[in-house]
Structures are given as structure tokens and as C-alpha cells.
Amino acid sequence: MANRYIALLRGINVGGHRVTMERLRELFVELGFASVETFIASGNVIFETDERDTAALEIRIEAHLKQALGYDVATFLRTPNELATACADCPLTAEAEDSLYVTFLKAPIEDALQQRLATLETKTDVFAFANREQYRLVHGKLTTSDIPDATLNRAMKGLSGTTRNVTTVKKLATKYQN
């Protein structure tokens, strides 16, 4: 039985890197994956494969996308069950006017990074962590955050991740649940 994965891609259709969802699906089919779909135009690709080594799959996908697109596309694989768990394990609660985001990483977040991010918290921004996910609650909209992207990137010290609104994550988990 094939395994279903959701590839959460960083840098698709942002910062001048435009890729049609049709082209993105084609690139995943070129890799030999089955049942390839995309979900909204922000780099969410659903596919099936018999392969189980997610780290090797991420590396293979990243290499293929770099060759085809000409730039690095960090790839973070999760199963639909892992996305559902990421939503269920979220230690933050958002109210109607709040924005809740999940940043997907390749490995669990080390304590030192958690402490660095905690020092950035303000009245509008709160961070929490579980497994390989960083959660960020912004009271209001992300555009009203007190933390500039450059400051957050410096605190992450080169650790790459890709961020999605928790609503998108819930929709992905629900739609593609095995």
C-alpha cells in the first residue's frame, strides 16, 4: 500500500519565485510519485509513493526542484496524520481576531532556540513548540506583529522551516486523512 505524504514547500509563489500548480504537479510526477495533487497556490503538494524514508524523499525532491526551477526549495514532508497531530498538539489557543501559524521544521526544536524565541515574545506575539513544529500566535494580523521577519530569521540562526496558517493545516489534514 502506498504512503500518502504532503510536501510543504518553502518559497513557492513568494519573493518572485512563481510556479504554476500544474508545473509543480508535473515535477512531482517526474519523480515517479502517484496521485499527485496541489492544495492552494502556496506550495502544498500531496502525493503517494511506496518509499518510507522521508529524509531521503525530502533530499530527492529538493534536488529535483532545484534542477528544474533554478533555486533552492526546502521541503518538509508530513503525513496527513502528522498534520492532524500538529493541530491537536498546538499549545496555543487563538481567538477570532488572532492569527495562529505553524512552522514546520526537519527536526525537533532545541531548547536553546526555544529560549531565544521566547525572548522575542511581545504583547502581540507568542511562541510555543511541540515535536517538529513551532507555533506562533499573533494577536491581530501577521502584518501587525511587533517582530520583524529579519529579527525572527536571526533568532532562528539559519534553521529553515516553512509556515502555514493553522486553518490551512487543518484543511490539509482533514481532506487527505488516510
What would you note in describing this structure?
The chain is an alpha+beta fold. It has helices spanning about 20-30, 55-70, 80-90, 110-120, 150-155, 165-175; strands spanning about 5-10, 35-40, 45-50, 75-80, 100-105, 125-130, 135-140, 160-165. Strands 2-3-1-4 form a four-stranded antiparallel beta sheet. It has a four-stranded antiparallel beta sheet with strand order 6-7-5-8. It starts with a strand and ends with a helix.
Compressed to H and E, one letter per element, the order equals: EHEEHEHEHEEHEH
Q: Given the structure, what is the number of helices? A: 6
Strands of the largest sheet, in order across it? 2-3-1-4
Kindly report how far apart the N and C termini lie: 11 Å
Enumerate the spans where pLDDT stays under 50 for 5 or more consecutive residues.
none
**What structural class is derived from the secondary structure elements?**
alpha+beta
Averaged pLDDT, please?
Answer: 91
Give the percentage of residues in beta strands. Answer: 25-35%
C-alpha Rg (nearest Å): 16 Å
